[in-house]
Structure formats: C-alpha cells, structure tokens
C-alpha cells in the first residue's frame, strides 16, 4: 500500500481562502475614527467651563430633583429633543429660577436658557438643540433657595448637525 498523498480538494481551497480573508473582514469592520472638528465647528472647552462655573458658582450640584428625558442616540443631530423637569416641590418661597442646557462639545456650549417665576407653578421644559458631534449634554437648574440641580446624558449623533 502506498501512503495517502495530500490532495487538493474544494474543502481545502475554501478553508485556505477563508483563513486569508478573515483579517481583511476584521479590518473592514473596524469603525472609522472621525477627525476632530476644526474652524468654526471646533469645540470650545474654555467657553463650556466658563458657562458651567458662572451658573454653578460655589454651589455643589445634586442629581436628585431633576428628571431628564434625553435620547442616547440622535438620528437627527439638527433637532435633538431635550426634556427636563424639576421634581422638587415648587412653592412661593422656593421655585426653580433658571434652567440651562449645555452641549459640552458644541462651538457655543450654551444651547438654551429658561427663566421661571414663582407663578409658573412648575419648572419643566422641552426644547430641541443642535449638536455638532457625539457628546455629553448637561442640564442644570438653580432653585430660589440656592440649591443647584444637575443632570447629564451622553448622546451619540448619526451625523454632524452644526455644519449642515
């Protein structure tokens, strides 16, 4: 008997092609890295920190008392819905004076500022903001008593909204 010689079969050829194709498939599935925005669309971290510190002052924000309804994925970055509601009791002695929305990586971070009075009765707002890229959106509310409420949600955008 003669020893079996290796034969070139369809199974061997398909296996070899699949083995060679796997690295290229893995490379094709690697998500592309987006270049940083430059020019008028570039983030302004100095303006973000300034707006945040101007609003908060020396107060320490608390998470309780502010309810946010913000999507995690924004299909349309030109109009991302932001809903915020102060859940603390609103009285004639303590109410929400002001609520702001900050987009951390937008060229102009202050997206919205809303002021309330004691006669408003509740402090809730629904707005749509434009986002330049995936980023964290901060919502802050200042009560008459000096209490500061804060919430944050990271949003992934499908495409750039500010450059449209």
UniProtKB/TrEMBL annotation:
InterPro entries: SoxY, SoxY_sf. It comes from the Bacteria. Keywords: Signal. The keyword Signal applies. Residues 55-162 form the Ig-like SoxY domain. Residues 1-28 form the signal peptide. This is Thiosulfate oxidation carrier protein SoxY. It comes from Comamonas denitrificans.
């Amino acid at each position: 008997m003669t020893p079996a010689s290796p034969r070139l079969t369809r199974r061997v050829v398909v296996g070899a092609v699949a083995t060679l194709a796997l690295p290229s498939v893995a490379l094709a599935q690697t998500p592309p890295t987006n270049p940083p925005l430059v020019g008028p669309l570039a983030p302004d971290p100095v303006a973000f920190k300034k707006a945040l510190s101007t609003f908060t002052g020396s107060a320490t924000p608390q998470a309780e008392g502010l309810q946010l309804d913000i999507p995690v994925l924004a299909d349309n970055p030109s109009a991302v819905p932001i809903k915020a509601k102060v859940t603390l009791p609103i009285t004639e002695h303590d109410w929400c004076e002001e609520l702001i929305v900050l987009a951390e990586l937008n060229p102009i971070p202050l997206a919205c500022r809303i002021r309330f009075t004691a006669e408003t009765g509740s402090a809730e707002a629904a707005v749509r903001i434009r986002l330049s890229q995936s980023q964290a959106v901060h919502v802050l509310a200042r009560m008459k008593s000096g209490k500061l409420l804060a919430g944050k949600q990271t949003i992934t955008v499908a495409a750039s909204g500010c450059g449209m």
